[in-house]
């Protein structure tokens, strides 16, 4: 079976799981029936517990689907705590459905897969040892990779049915009113966890900071919560900004960021009241700093900034250069701290952010999106999930979602070491080329032929060196040579959804 990108999909799995192949980014205006969670009525009882294992024993059974959020990233302590309790109780055959998986979770997930505790995973991404093990076939069934907006859609429409959500929060009262803004482990927006709180059949909050009732403002409400478990420590918020969200000092990244800024400034979208989102890659994060000066020089301000919020975006808000920050997650502690102090930094859930099947998400209002890539091919299709060796080492994240902006810019080096970024054919298609408008590298830019308006705008800008994407691919090949085709087995280890639930690609097991 092939989809409209020409990606081969496994017939048997597609039929067994009732998936449809990707066709187009134009989703249209269908009508959907939302799902609803089961509710066990509680009237007037305190929900505070001090024995996590007893709570797990009461709520989790073989074959269930459990979920977590990843707002604390590598500072998260809750995931491993809960999974250890589950394994100690001998619970088996679980589906793991976190918003994403971070490096601190890897060893525990690998152990849970090997002993049969986890047999299915749906997530946004995975890296490191877990990605390597899954790529080599450790998991019984293929991982279903979804974007943040796609996960929200799948939860709301019932494709992901969460039995129990375990949600770490930096504060809660005895009845389950909680937010992400106060306490030693404060991490800001609870944007991803809000989906789980609203739709899981059972919601268990874990906190190290039990506060007086009623706790306000309440992002998660007592009407949604079954149990509150007091733990020693939820996590370390100082580790939120590690890994993929670190700020770059690399000269190549900064060169790319300056070029991205020139693309933005010379586009039709750089006008008073524009809106934007920047991704979590080094160059993408640096763009915000250059954009600030351009806004000052041109006496412009932005109506809103979206997505993962960073300190440079908070600085724009505090300087009056952006009116609102719509915050689904915080990429550093400074952004998390800002949420409790600034009324114009609005917490939003993942559905409001990017669900394509609701009555209007924020990404549909974006003028400019700046995103990164592991690979991009000559049809402008983007891979942010697998490396040049075929191993899973990234995340779909909000990439597909934000790429619906009026102008989507991919910033990436032409090569990374001896590995080309611009190629004839990418390993894994995550975001379709029809969503991508401009590629920016340190050598120059390429504009999607589908955007003759942008070609006209940029072709005479002295600071922008415009090439065709085929020319950039040949340039990359001249530097690092032509790569040998990867070798795979017949086993499918992952299916990649487009944000509408269709399958945009499959990932096969890497051959040893």
UniProtKB/TrEMBL annotation:
Coiled-coil features, chain-numbered ranges: none
Annotated catalysed reactions: citrate + acetyl-CoA = (3S)-citryl-CoA + acetate; citrate = oxaloacetate + acetate
Pfam families: CitF
Gene Ontology BP annotations: acetyl-CoA metabolic process
The keyword Lyase belongs to this UniProt entry's keyword annotation: yes
Gene of this entry: citF
Record localization: Cytoplasm
Main location: cytoplasm
Gene Ontology molecular-function annotations: citrate (pro-3S)-lyase activity; citrate CoA-transferase activity
Signal peptide: none
Transmembrane feature ranges: none
Enzyme Commission number(s) from the entry: 2.8.3.10, 4.1.3.6
UniProt keywords, alphabetically: Cytoplasm, Lyase, Transferase
NCBIfam families: citF
Record-linked InterPro entries: Citrate_lyase_asu, NagB/RpiA_transferase-like
Gene Ontology cellular-component annotations: ATP-independent citrate lyase complex; cytoplasm
High-level lineage: Bacteria, Bacillati, Bacillota, Bacilli, Lactobacillales
Protein name, as recorded: Citrate lyase alpha chain
